[in-house]
């Protein structure tokens, strides 16, 4: 889009073109050069984020969870899969901080190992949903007309599918009994079904904020100054429509971890030996009264993770809004 | 209807010296209609005007007279649908912009013709700093480095007389006052050194003292850069100081075109006369404000004959039958009234 040759279009050179502008106060000081660069939206947002305790707290938690997902052996030497039935539902103690589950497996080790599936599934599904829904929403809102009509009807079709039913159809087709998908393939299928069934919400959200923003004078002004469609979408629409998406995205992280648990509970999602917080929670629900700690620990991790993402989303949203700086 | 208007350079001192012959920007017999569910509104019905380098043309008219739509059509930012250009030409350096490819037109925007808007708060993107938005043009259209673009942007802010331009560079639009935002908007429009600047009611959203400052600034920059400027306004007071020529619009037509002195001294159209009469005057304090009776016509159903005839105090039977063409009156002015000569020749 950057087109320096466009300058030649102005065919007649101006006789009195002002060549010297009002005395530049900071002309050519090389040692200043780096500081003189204008920061873009992201630069300013980052500078603002660094000052927020909310950001650092949530970022620390998320970092810990990510480490947990990547290298669970850093946090525990226990075995998440095999247990001794003799220790079934043994309460937390100094030896086993989180106790043992029904099968006599170490709950602490399982919670740590469960982070990977839960976080990978939730994060990738949210990213996928935001990308697909956001892109469709921007195109529909910006183009309008029949493009909008077509994309909106497609979204309506997916919107009409009940979540659980749709996921059952997708997952029993590709991940039914008798299939031997490995851990990553199952995660991919779960992510796919979550994305396929939830992008329409994001698309509608994006489309409506694009429709509201599109009429703003600065979009017209940008067009009047010769900006192309790509630049208008990326520089003007996207930054101004991002806030509701970020908020919704962070909320989705939590609901997707829950959705993954639902699918596992129905027997069509992740299966043993894969561990996830969702699986642990659904296994624990039959023993809530007798052994509440079985539910408490994975649920506490889940809540902490979701809360961290929500706080991070909030901090980022505030940083991206210049009026709150 | 198209080749009647031959109003020449009227302001002494701004003659076409130093420029190749040929008009800079010409609008000829432009016709635009809005096709809505309720019917077709004929918003522009054969507008013809031009602007040359170093000259300011004021387009005057009440709300709905089509002055902004003409500007939007020139810029190519008319919303289609509902707006459709049904005829005429917009020539920039003699080339019809309405027949250019989208890409060709896009390149003219900003570098050839730029526009400033009425409401500068909403015309600046709220999530980027003012300086960034100005510098962006240098980076994208001129391929400058970030540091160079910043330097140029600060120079531009300096030129539009924003105090402490360097410090203000990294402020956001909401941290600027109304007048400063309009200055920043002007800086942004002038960044690529356009040959024509269209100012669509640039001072309407500002208070009176700031209005005067902004008009002075625009006039000064226009003279310095020898730009052609089209100043769209409904404020007769704003026009007098800055404009060289005035085109008065009514119901999508130019009803009178003249240089400022002639138009104020002796209007050649009853509508202009009515507009000048309705300016509040200090020596008539306490009396009722004079107005033009009636309302502008419904553009979906423009009355036959002269569109102004239902409101015109001088209306005769011929006015209800024949549309008066825009004809030359005297040496350097034109009027679309059957009785223009009589108006000009009266005492």
TrEMBL record, chain A:
Query: What GO CC annotations are associated with the protein?
Result: plasma membrane
InterPro entries found in the cross-reference section: BP-dependent_transpt_permease, MetI-like, MetI-like_sf, OppC_N
PANTHER family listed in its UniProt record:
ABC TRANSPORTER PERMEASE PROTEIN, OLIGOPEPTIDE TRANSPORT SYSTEM PERMEASE PROTEIN APPC
Annotated region (Disordered) at 1-35
- In terms of superkingdom, the source organism counts as Bacteria
This chain's protein is named Peptide ABC transporter permease
Family membership, please give it: Belongs to the binding-protein-dependent transport system permease family.
Transmembrane regions listed in the UniProt entry: 54-75, 119-142, 154-174, 186-206, 293-312
Pfam families on file: BPD_transp_1, OppC_N
One GO-annotated biological process of the protein: transmembrane transport
Which organism is this protein's natural source? Micromonospora globispora
Q: What is the membrane topology here?
A: Multi-pass membrane protein
Chief location bin? membrane
Q: Where is the ABC transmembrane type-1 domain?
A: 115-313
The protein's location, in the record's own words, is: Cell membrane
Q: Which UniProt keywords apply?
A: Cell membrane, Membrane, Transmembrane, Transmembrane helix, Transport
């Amino acid at each position: 889009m950057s087109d320096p040759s466009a300058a030649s279009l102005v065919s007649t050179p101006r006789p009195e073109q002002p060549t010297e502008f009002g005395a530049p106060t900071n002309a050519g000081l090389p040692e200043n050069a780096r500081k003189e660069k204008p920061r873009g939206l992201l630069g300013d947002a980052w500078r603002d984020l660094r000052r927020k305790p909310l950001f650092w707290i949530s970022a620390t938690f998320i970092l810990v969870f990510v480490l947990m997902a990547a290298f669970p052996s850093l946090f525990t030497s226990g075995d998440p899969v095999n247990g001794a039935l003799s220790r079934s539902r043994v309460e937390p103690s100094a030896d086993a901080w989180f106790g043992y589950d029904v099968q006599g497996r170490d709950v602490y080790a399982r919670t740590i190992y469960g982070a990977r599936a839960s976080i990978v599934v939730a994060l990738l599904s949210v990213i996928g949903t935001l990308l697909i829904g956001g892109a469709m929403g921007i195109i529909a809102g910006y183009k309008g007309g029949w493009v909008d009509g077509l994309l909106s009807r497609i979204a309506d079709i997916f919107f009409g599918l009940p979540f659980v039913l749709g996921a059952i159809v997708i997952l029993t087709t590709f991940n039914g009994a008798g299939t031997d998908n490995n851990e990553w393939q199952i995660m991919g299928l779960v992510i796919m079904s979550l994305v396929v069934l939830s992008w329409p919400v994001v698309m509608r959200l994006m489309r409506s904020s694009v429709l509201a923003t599109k009429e703003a004078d600065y979009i017209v002004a940008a067009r009047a100054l010769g900006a192309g469609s790509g630049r208008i979408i990326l520089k003007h629409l996207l930054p101004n429509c991002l806030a509701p998406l970020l908020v919704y995205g962070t909320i989705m992280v939590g609901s997707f971890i829950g959705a993954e648990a639902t699918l596992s509970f129905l027997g069509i999602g992740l299966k043993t030996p894969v561990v996830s917080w969702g699986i642990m929670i659904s296994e624990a629900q039959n023993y809530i009264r007798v052994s509440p700690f079985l539910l408490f620990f994975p649920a506490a991790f889940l809540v902490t993770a979701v809360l961290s993402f929500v706080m991070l989303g909030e901090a980022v949203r505030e940083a991206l809004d210049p009026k709150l700086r | 209807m198209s080749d009647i208007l031959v109003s020449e350079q009227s302001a002494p001192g701004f003659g076409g010296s130093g420029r190749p012959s040929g008009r800079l920007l010409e609008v000829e017999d432009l016709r635009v209609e809005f096709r809505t569910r309720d019917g077709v509104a004929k918003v522009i019905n054969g507008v013809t005007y031009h602007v040359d380098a170093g000259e300011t043309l004021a387009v005057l008219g009440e709300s709905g007279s089509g002055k902004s739509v003409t500007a939007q059509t020139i810029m190519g930012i008319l919303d289609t649908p509902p707006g459709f250009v049904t005829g005429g030409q917009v020539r920039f350096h003699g080339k019809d912009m309405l027949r250019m490819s989208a890409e060709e037109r896009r390149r003219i925007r900003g570098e050839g013709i730029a526009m400033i808007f009425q409401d500068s708060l909403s015309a600046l993107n709220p999530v980027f700093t003012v300086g960034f938005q100005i510098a962006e043009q240098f980076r994208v259209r001129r391929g400058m480095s970030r540091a160079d673009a910043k330097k140029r942007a600060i120079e531009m802010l300096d030129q539009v007389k924003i105090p402490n331009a360097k410090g203000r560079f990294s402020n956001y639009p909401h941290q600027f006052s109304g007048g400063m935002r309009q200055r920043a908007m002007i800086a942004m429009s002038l960044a690529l050194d356009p040959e024509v600047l269209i100012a669509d009611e640039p001072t309407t959203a500002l208070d009176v003292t700031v209005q005067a400052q902004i008009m002075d600034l625009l006039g000064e920059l226009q003279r310095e850069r020898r730009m052609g400027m089209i100043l769209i306004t409904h404020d007769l007071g704003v026009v007098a100081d800055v404009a060289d020529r005035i085109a008065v619009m009514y119901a999508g037509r130019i009803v009178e075109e003249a240089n400022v002195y002639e138009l104020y001294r002796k209007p050649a159209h009853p509508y202009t006369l009515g507009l000048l009469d309705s300016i509040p005057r200090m020596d008539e304090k306490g009396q009722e404000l004079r107005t033009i009776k009636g309302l502008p016509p419904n553009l979906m159903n423009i009355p036959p004959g002269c569109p102004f005839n239902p409101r015109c105090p001088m209306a005769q039977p011929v006015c209800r039958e024949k549309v008066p063409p825009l004809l030359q009156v005297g040496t350097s002015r034109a009027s679309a009234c059957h009785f223009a000569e009589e108006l000009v020749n009266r005492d």
